[in-house]
Amino acid sequence: MNKLNEYFKKNHKPKNFTHKSVEKQAELQTQTIKGKRFYVLPNGEKLPSITTVLSARGNEGIARWRQSVGEQVANTIMRNAAKRGTAVHTLTENYLNNEELTQQAVLPTALFTILKSELDKINNIVMQEGALYSNKWGVAGRVDCIAEYDGKLSVIDFKTSTKDKKEEWVENYFIQTSAYCEMFEERYGKSIDQIVILIVTEEGSTQTFVKNKKDYLPLLKPAIEEFHKKFQI
Q1: Which strands make up the sheet holding 206-212, listed edge to edge?
Q2: N or C end of the chain: smaller count of CB under 10 Å?
Q3: Per CATH, which fold does 19-230 belong to?
Q4: 224 CB-near residues (< 8 Å, 6+ apart)
Q5: 3-state SS assignment for residue 21
Q6: CA nearest 207: which of 167, 177, 175?
Q7: Using CA atoms, how far apart are residues 22 and 201, in angstroms rounded to an integer?
Q8: Which of 200, 192, 89 is nearest to 144 (CA)?
Q9: pLDDT in tens, 60-115
Q10: How far is Cα 70 from Cα 192, in angstroms, rounded to an integer?
Q11: 190, 231 Cβ separation under 8 angstroms
């Protein structure tokens, strides 16, 4: 065991988070249709992923960035970002589950260490990595975490980034988590108003955005309508 792994195990011991999990419903399978992700409901109906629905919203800046750096460089950066995010999510999920953590690569380990002070504000965990859907809105997805944050039941999303993000850049995150609030209420009958976005950056900072879903639900309907205008199955 190298010194880094020894340090990691010593300073990231399992914590005693309380879990108040809801009864699990049927797990949803995913299916890719014309390059878009859909969730298959127990009755066979297919609903688009909320992240897929929102991916086309306000993506002009991303398109310009891809053009400026070139497709090959852009794809490499996106793959590395996805790998980084997955590793941090794994550490976060295991930490909230009171499990002993397995060291990841140096960067995700460092990012998790920075994020941990915000994770310690979470408790009374209701759901982690849970599949949800809404017949009312016609979307589905997999929520990172539903738990109390600073004592208030919230939909919580964990993000990694190279650098700090301006609030206007992450509006889709607010819409996405607001949709999860609606999905959870429809499936379990319990209302959630607060959404929390926790971002940890390679610059060594954390950003915490705490919002109310009512401010972003008006943006959800037009995003869904626009998706269905462009994509039909």
Answers
A1: 122-134, 139-149, 152-161, 194-201, 206-212
A2: N
A3: Lambda Exonuclease; Chain A (3.90.320)
A4: 53, 137, 138, 139
A5: coil
A6: 167
A7: 32
A8: 89
A9: 555 554 556 576 655 665 576 678 788 999 999 999 999 888 767 888 989 999 99
A10: 42
A11: no
